[in-house]
Amino acid sequence: MLPQPAANADILARRDDIVAGLRALLPDDAVIAEPLRLKPYETDGLAAYRQVPLAVVLPSTTEEVAAIMAFCHAEGVRVVPRGAGTSLSGGALPMADSVVVGLMRMNRILDIDYADRCAVVQAGVTNIGITQAVAEQGFFYAPDPSSQLACMIGGNVNMNSGGAHCLRYGVTANNLLGLKVVTVEGEILDIGGAHLDAAGYDWLGLLTGSEGQLAVVTEVTVRILRGPEGARAMLAAFRSNEVAGACVDSIIASGIIPVALEFMDRPAIHACEAFAKAGYPLDAEAMLIIEVEGSVAEQDFLLDQIKAICARHDPISLKVSQSAEESAAIWKGRKGAFGAVGRISPDYMCMDGTIPTSQLPHVLRRIGEMSASYGLQVANIFHAGDGNLHPLIMFDANDPASFAKAEKFGAEILTLCVEVGGCLTGEHGVGVEKRDLMHVQFSEVELDQQRRVKSAFDPGWLLNANKVFPLKGLAAE
Amino acid sequence: MSDALAPSDEAGIVEAIRAAHDAGEPLAVAGRGSKAGLLRPVQAARGLSAANLTGITLYSPSELIISARAGTTLAELEAAVAAKGQHIIAEPPDFTGLFDRVQPQTIGGMVAANLSGPRRVAWGAMRDHVMGIRAVNGAGEVIRSGGRVLKNVTGLDLCKLFAGSYGTLGVLTEVTLKVLPAAAQRATLVLRGLDPTRAVAALAAALGSPYAVSGAAYLPAALAGFVPGVGAGPVALARLEDFAPSVAYRSERLRADLAPFGAAMVLNDIASRTAWAAIRDCAPFAGMQGAIWRVSVRPSRGPGVAAALERGFGAAWFLDWGGGLVWAAGPATAEAHAVVVAAAGDAGGTFTLFRAPETLRAVVDVVPPEPAPLARISRRVKDAFDPRGILNPGRIVR
Ligand SMILES: Cc1cc2nc3c(=O)[nH]c(=O)nc-3n(C[C@H](O)[C@H](O)[C@H](O)COP(=O)(O)OP(=O)(O)OC[C@H]3O[C@@H](n4cnc5c(N)ncnc54)[C@H](O)[C@@H]3O)c2cc1C
Predict the structure, then answer these.
(1) Is residue A216 within 8 Å of A101, Cβ to Cβ?
(2) Nearest C-alpha to atom 15 of ligand 1 is from which residue?
(3) Tell me, what's the ipTM?
(4) Which of B60, B114, B133, B152 has the most A C-beta neighbours within 10 Å, making it the best mutation to test the interface with A?
(5) Are A216 and A115 part of one and the same domain?
(6) Secondary structure (DSSP) of A107-147
(7) Domain with CATH 3.30.70.2190 in chain B
(8) So what's the pLDDT on residue A106?
(9) Which of A339, A369, A397 is the last residue in one of the domains?
(10) Predicted TM-score (pTM) above 0.90
């Protein structure tokens, strides 16, 4: 378990006054301070870490957020912004002396403009909610994290979340036009707008993926895109991870960029098939889900070429989906992968490193060796086109020794990712989980540079202060 | 700036910046200086150039990644990726024609200026494809951000902050870009005779179609000659880039979809390349005297901005990015500039005084000033990289 910074005793002692101060700013039902009602906010998608906050506030407007921030700033109280709390890196984990600012009540879609292809939504709108709002006109919001039913756009912005289709459509950062944010001092800023490429420094780019370290996002202007005429998936099954990896290289080298290119190893195939009954090949060592878009004829054109490339890699089977239902079943298995692994193991930890795709066979071999030496099973899911690897480490949270081993195993995998030229996190963020691994990727000079940028926005380190940066100056408990 | 330092490696850049830092002496940072005419002039005793840091350091086509030292010319990079059938996604423009410079552009300069071509409207800006940087900050420290993989959210994204920072935060020494396969073929649908508002509505229909339109521009009658073979009168252009059968199919479908706006003619691959290169490089203004502005607004507001500039000072103009990018040329006067500032503000957008004599760009805001709370943060961020304010002081803001 990573140590957390010690709570500020002075703040804890002033708890009642702070809560009263917040109540003076907000409607009654927007301030939570009763222990039982604080409980649901004690953790996020990284459930091993838990900490009940000082209080939770649920603002409904940007002005309320500004009032909260100004108050907390004046009182020297730490703030942890929170969306749906699905972070897998502990990004939304509270601190004992912090106020959690939950954005879930800010769930309105403010404007949809099809001619200018953008929408303005509040931070608490769910990812899928945006697509649902524009679907009737055939549009969609492109980044599609597997958690899209629950996670919120404010969280997506702060994690720069990706999805299975980001090989073609980019991650969150590539699909944003503007933000409304509240600074730590409680000032409201408009960044960007409905236009492209604001002149001056790219604040929009810096704020995206900043994990709640720089400001609180209250509104987001997203690009919306017209959907393709159609899409079709195929499954390709191979005898080894090496061969499947080589096939991915051949597809991309041929000049075809499928809209999605997902890789699963044997344990992942078995877990997902048991869950989704999608017809995944149980005799394969590795499987690819490959999706293309366009008219039926265009899909055929691309799939024929992809099939020919796959055929050169001695596949066990190639199966092109014959219907929308079959495609949906194929994706149900992939998008439900985490839940599927959750059914075969009491607990799992989802890693999120990125590697140069050419390193896949080597990295999977090493992970296999680590799995044997730690005595913990692992299933690997991989956004193969862009090198983002999700090893799911299975363990038993009721057994502290098992948890400790899983954490160590995970750290060893991520260190390997950096060693082969990749990075600690491709889309889940550093959060608490990878905070102390940042040294593996960055020099102290580089970390200090990033810390100074944080300080420029948040001189007193009140925003989400226990995350991202290895603790320094903050005394560990 | 005859007294320009041009070290041959990163260590040399570090040394030069440390010395300047210790002495508190400003440096004018550049690649080969092809963009010295952009934004504000820098008052500095010395120049520091990354032009001699050259060479592609990594190219892995199947991983869609290329890295090069900052002084590598864009031409070298483009040739390398073209040899593998790939391209630089944001379609970087070549503005040397606007600035009477013979110096080729460097990749460091391209990233530091975050300049993107017509494909930006569909595929993102230069900054969207910067996967990694190495840079030397104003204290002479080497910092890296990002890396050489396509998905990376580890730590704050300084790649994006550096893209468009015009050498004010650090000197880029190496950049890593995402690349993609270049389309096998392109075609352009041309609608003739539409007024600007109707044309932008047609472009919105094209960009809002399922056919992945990758360029959408409008040239008024006076500039239509830059598009081969379309005759007189204004033209609205929508580009398709894809595999040959897709381009054929999509051209037909899009033509049908756009029928309410008139009967589109279709430009073939070669004519398309010519037309879009001219739009990308702002060729219509290459021979013109005076100032040039870029105004970025929501696309539907483009025609209104263009009309305001035409009324205000007889601007020559054309539209890219579906109407969202207004290129305008006119007299290099404070009065004309004020018209641009007002029109961009009214439309809720942003402007850049892109080219002007020093006498003008030294005395006006070349980009919109930031509101006070943001300007405060902005100054602190600048300090965080460049504590003594020696890197390109005054380049972006007065
Ligand atoms: C089953 C499952 C599948 C997942 N699949 C994917 C996937 O495919 N791709 C992917 O990228 N991620 C995935 N995730 C991770 C997670 O869903 C994303 O990180 C998501 O963007 C988090 O959104 P959220 O609303 O839950 O944010 P939270 O978890 O509440 O917060 C995330 C971070 O953002 C900050 N934050 C939240 N809202 C704001 C705001 N308005 N202003 C400032 N800071 C804010 C928080 O402080 C925290 O640091 C998955 C998670 C689960 C549980």
Answers:
(1) yes
(2) A87
(3) 0.97
(4) B152
(5) yes
(6) --EEEEETTTTEEEEETTSBHHHHHHHHGGGTEE-----TT
(7) 185-280
(8) 98
(9) A339
(10) yes
